[in-house]
Model the fold of this input.
Amino acid sequence: TQIEQQEMARIIREFLDALPVTERRVFLRRYWYMDPIGSIAKNFGFSESKTASMLHRTRTKLRAKLESEEYL
Done:
């Protein structure tokens, strides 16, 4: 429903606002703009493995946030 979508958007917005700037930008490049990991890594000067690890850790944090909000 629309209310559920608004609630999910609020939770994700709060989550993103709490992230360090670089972590937030990497996450958005991957999951909002759908950039490939190789491209993100190159743009930020990271290795692909560091970028993939960062994304994995961020997804884990997001899952924990959603669980704490009893959304999952």
Notes: The CA atoms of residues 11 and 69 lie 8 Å apart. The longest helix spans residues 48-68. The chain has a mean pLDDT of 95. Helices lie at 2-18, 21-31, 37-44, 48-68.
